[in-house]
Write a structure and sequence with these properties.
Elements lengths: L2 H11 L1 H10 L7 H10 L7 H19 L7 H15 L28 H13 L3 H11 L6 H15 L4 E2 L7 H11 L5 H8 L3 E2 L20
Antiparallel strand pairs: 1-2
Length: 227
């Protein structure tokens, strides 16, 4: 088994944690056991249909990662993968797998992201392929809001895919739903901290996905879910 396949296997074992964590970004409070029941037994509990669609979309995004060739040779490869990934996980987007072509705002901030250009996005992907930094990647891409919807989901999953392909460390599965992440992102949106500072904050949550012994839980993992 290759190193990448080993990392995929371990990523698969943590899939429900990732689904739960990324669902929390959408305001969906779902525990590990509830995620398992929904995915494996179609037990929707008291979750709304649109919530179920988002949870299922994240699962499909993870399945796509696990089945894909993640040895990205060029930034164009990453961009094509990102478009496909977005088309899978973005439930409410005006257009799926297509860069945003209009203006949007970010609630709770005065930040207005510029309209993305394909060439510029690919150039940034190329920089990250050369000099990978998980924290910088997630904060820069979430802030840029290059998609109409699902930017956080797409960014975290794309970062996971690139990290697996480069055999690099992953972010703690609970980090996206932590207060620390939300506070850091808010400060970054408002230009109160630099990208470097935001990345340094997230680096405390990195661990080797293929070496569970090195994993240290750094945020609250009680995840009660719905009663």
């Amino acid at each position: 088994m290759t190193k990448i396949n080993e990392m995929k296997q371990n990523y698969k074992h943590k899939a429900y944690d990732r689904i739960s964590s990324l669902s929390a970004l959408e305001g969906i409070n779902i525990s590990f056991l509830q995620t398992q029941s929904l995915i494996e037994y179609s037990d929707f509990g008291d979750f709304k249909l649109d919530e179920v669609e988002k949870i299922s979309a994240i699962k499909k995004g993870i399945d796509f990662i696990l089945s894909a060739d993640l040895e990205f040779k060029t930034a164009e490869d990453v961009f094509l993968f990102a478009k496909k990934l977005h088309s899978i996980v973005a439930v409410d987007a005006l257009e799926k797998g297509v860069l945003r072509t209009g203006n949007v705002g970010v609630s709770g901030t005065n930040f207005v992201p510029s309209i993305p250009k394909e060439k510029e996005v690919i150039v940034r992907y190329e920089e990250y392929l050369k000099n990978w930094d998980y924290g910088k990647f997630i904060f820069e891409n979430i802030k840029n809001q290059i998609w109409w919807d699902g930017n956080k989901r797409t960014t975290f999953l794309l970062a996971d895919a690139i990290a697996i392909g480069k055999c690099k460390k992953h972010i703690d599965h609970n980090y996206p739903q932590s207060v620390h992440f939300r506070e850091t992102l808010h400060l970054f949106y408002n230009d109160e901290i630099t990208l470097e500072k935001a990345s340094n904050e997230s680096n405390h949550y990195l661990y080797d996905v293929d070496n569970p012994k090195e994993f240290k839980l750094l945020v609250n993992h009680t995840k009660k879910g719905r009663s």
